[in-house]
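My current task is to audit a protein record that another person submitted. I need someone to confirm that the token line plausibly describes how this chain folds. Take the sequence as given and treat only the tokens as open to question. This is what I was given:
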Amino acid sequence: MEKPMEIEVIWEAAPIPEWEILEIALRDGVAAAVRLGGGPETAAVCVLVTGDARLRELNRQYRGLDQATDVLSFAMRETGPGEPAVADANMDADTDATLGDIVISLERAAAQGEEYGHGLRRELVFLAVHGALHLLGYDHGAEEDAVVMRAMEKTVMNHLGALQEGSDRAR
């Protein structure tokens, strides 16, 4: 029997009243992105919800950009140019479906949710979906890749019912 999808959510940011509801929404968003994006049904993903300072630190360390950002993804099987090789003798490509980690800034999600007029929950879910798609190999560096990734984001958000009426911002 295959193990089910495993999505862990860790709250490093200051606790907020609706964290339990947001945690369920984050799990649902990641699971939908993995399934619709072609990932394994047995995927394992960790989502860390933290603050701008932590995202800035990670962005500086891993991307050489000394600025905060809204979401970062750390894929277990990164194969892009300039990326460190991931070689774990204990990882079996056929049975280990660990995709990686997603780190989201709660501060940035709240600000963006307000700015775009759809609120914190929808923005957190979008960022989790965006991060999960990166773990699956989707990218937006080149225009043709961005078109594919944006279409998949919109598909997932529509599937979740989280894309607001009249909004074309799936980002």
In short: The longest helix spans residues 19-36. Confidence is low (pLDDT under 50) at residues 81-95, 164-169. The CA atoms of residues 56 and 150 lie 24 Å apart.
